[in-house]
């Protein structure tokens, strides 16, 4: 007597079995329904089933069986995860520092900033900005411009205009000659001249 090859395959009746036609089958013989996946039942048989989407734990912590309502979030209370309503805070005070100021109330603040002056901080107006922006660029050196200022090093200049206390203009000129000597001359509008070689 010749036995079919399939008859030699061990079957357990759960994962492997023969159908009514004597064919070896794996898993359930029926087609799955909508949203079904293959899984095992309590007897270990392969079946089509819709998975249970409820969770009993999250990160090892139990999840409350209480159903949430609209707008609630999942919150951990130290023992389990449970639905909770998010509460909003209440504004009780607004503290400002100069140049900021609050002209409103603690619950309805109205913040403003004052304009800067020569002695107090604040915002720079467009007029002030235009004034600052029109200033001369940095000179790259420190000018000598008041009594008591000093300087060192060479000075390359051929003509200086000086003013007396009475408003008279005086001029100071360094005259060089081919003999590499120079005299220092000064004169005013009356052409009075002195030389010192």
Percent range for β-strand residues:
25-35%
Reported for the largest beta sheet, the result is: 4 strands, antiparallel
Main β-sheet, spatial strand arrangement: 11-12-13-14
Low-confidence spans: 177-182, 191-197
Q: Helix coverage percent of residues?
A: under 10%
| Element-by-element helix/strand order | EEEEEEEEEEHEEEE
| Helix segment tally | 1
Question: Looking at the structure, what is the overall shape?
Answer: elongated
Structural class: mainly beta
- End-to-end separation in angstroms reads 146 Å
Tell me, rounded to a whole number, the average pLDDT. 75
Radius of gyration: 50 Å
Number of beta-strand segments: 14
Task: Briefly say what this structure is.
The protein is mainly β. Among the domains are: 10-49, no CATH class; 159-196, no CATH class.
Protein model, in words:
The chain is mainly beta and 197 residues long. Among the domains are: 10-49, no CATH class; 159-196, no CATH class. Helices cover 4% and strands 29% of the residues. It contains 1 helix and 14 strands; from the N terminus they run ββββββββββαββββ. The protein has one helix at 126-133, and strands at residues 16-18, 24-26, 37-40, 46-49, 57-58, 61-62, 72-76, 81-85, 100-102, 111-113, 159-163, 169-176, 182-188, 193-196. The strands form 6 sheets. The chain has a 4-stranded antiparallel beta sheet with strand order 11-12-13-14, with no helix packed on it. The longest helix has 8 residues, at 126-133.
């Amino acid at each position: 007597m010749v036995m079919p090859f399939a008859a030699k395959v061990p079957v357990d009746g759960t994962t492997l079995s023969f159908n009514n036609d004597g064919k070896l089958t794996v898993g359930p013989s029926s087609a799955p329904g909508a949203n079904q996946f293959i899984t095992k039942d309590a007897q270990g048989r392969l079946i089509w089933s819709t998975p249970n989407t409820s969770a009993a734990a999250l990160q090892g912590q139990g999840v409350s069986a209480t159903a949430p309502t609209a707008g609630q979030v999942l919150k951990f209370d130290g023992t389990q995860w449970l639905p909770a309503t998010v509460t909003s805070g209440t504004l009780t005070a607004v503290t400002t520092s100069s140049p900021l100021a609050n002209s409103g109330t603690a619950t309805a603040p109205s913040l403003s900033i004052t304009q800067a002056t020569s002695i107090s901080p604040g915002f720079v107006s467009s007029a002030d900005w235009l004034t600052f922006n029109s200033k001369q660029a940095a000179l790259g050196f420190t000018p000598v411009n008041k009594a008591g200022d000093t300087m060192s090093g060479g000075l390359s200049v051929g003509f200086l205009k000086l003013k007396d206390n009475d408003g008279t203009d005086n001029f100071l000129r360094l005259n060089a000659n081919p003999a590499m000597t120079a005299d220092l001359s000064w004169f005013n509008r009356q052409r009075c001249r002195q030389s010192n070689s």
